[in-house]
Amino acid sequence: MQDSQAAELEKIQLTEIRNAIDAIDRQIQDLIGQRALCAQKVADIKTQGGKVEAVFYRPEREAQVLRAVRERNESLISDNDMARLFREIMSVCLALEHPTRVAYLGPEGSYSHSSALKQFGTSAHPLAVSTISDVFKAVEKGEADYGIVPVENSSEGVVKQTQNELIKTGLKISGEVDLAIHHCLLSVSHDIETIERVAAHPQALGQCEQWLKNNFPGVQLMPVESNALAAKMAKEDPTLAAIASEQAAQLYELHILEANIEDQKDNTTKFWVVGSEKTAPSGLDKTALIVSMPNKAGALMDVLASFANRKISMTRIISTPSVNKKWDYVFFIDVLGHQDEPLLQEALQEVKDKSLFYKLLGSFPVSPLD
């Protein structure tokens, strides 16, 4: 009898909670609908009078909204998970204004694809292209509104193809994405003994170098344009394994022979968003530039002093050989702050005056998503 009464009480309590959840869901749905109406009004204002060049995606505005979501979050949900939920709501609402076309190094299932979804949400229109150079070309030609490109990996360093394109392009950096990279060994075969070759992007092969030496010392390594391309190749050849993501395994119906094969477990790749528009200040920004200075003692220190003397923090400096002159180098420098801030404006002008080559890549919000 007591068991029966307890079961009945539990049923009543669960029904009450589920009814409360249903009521909350209706409120959430209604509020999202109201937000969508506001987004549509924004689009109407931006396009009134027949404007065709309106800018709908504002990186600084989205960063401000997501930071506010994190700051006011007092729920059981983590700050980052709450921000990701809002990222999707914002993506859906932005699509009502204007579908954002994003070029990335494909095919579908690549890490560049994952970074595009993280930055723009699943309602963006991703455009897969074959090379990093093609990402820049797609944006320059107007085939995409933005492009997303890998810049640097925490274990393998810079992506040279991206560096080369940044030197040449007229596009501006408008955002950054840090993506945790966990590699899987994928094959259409269930039997690891059948694998004769392993294909992947050169960066991925480097990130898994020690694991491959320990587990496949005699296997041929095949560098290809992207890990997702390697996955597509593996689907057609049981003797070929690919290093790619779990998402790629699902997309191309491959078996995960081994998971998390990267040598460093905190393996992370930084991506940059490139576009044609200058990004306004968000309140917490970075500025990126490229410089080359005279080949004389103290030249680099003199350039960096322009920032240090104004207490401007440098977050990244990378050197790469110049393509114009043997033994000359260009430096990729990131600093905290927006190019429109007076102190940073002074510093940038001073650096420009001291440099043989100077290129401002742009200012962009520090990513609000972990």
Structural overview:
This protein has 370 residues and is of the alpha/beta class. The protein has 4 domains: 94 residues, Chorismate Mutase Domain, subunit A, CATH 1.20.59; 88 residues, 3-Layer(aba) Sandwich (D-Maltodextrin-Binding Protein, domain 2), CATH 3.40.190; 76 residues, D-Maltodextrin-Binding Protein, domain 2; 85 residues, Alpha-Beta Plaits, CATH 3.30.70.260. It is 43% helix and 25% strand. The strands form 3 sheets. Strands 1, 2, 3, 4, 5 and 11 form a 6-stranded mixed sheet that branches. Strands 8-7-9-6-10 form a 5-stranded mixed sheet. Strand 1, helix 4 and strand 2 form a beta-alpha-beta unit. The chain is globular, with a radius of gyration of 24 Å. The model has no long low-confidence stretch (mean pLDDT 92). InterPro entries: ACT-like_dom_sf, ACT_dom, Chor_mutase/pphenate_deHydtase, Chorismate_II_sf, CM_dom_sf, CM_II_prokaryot, G/b/e-P-prot_chorismate_mutase, Preph_deHydtase. This is Bifunctional chorismate mutase/prephenate dehydratase.
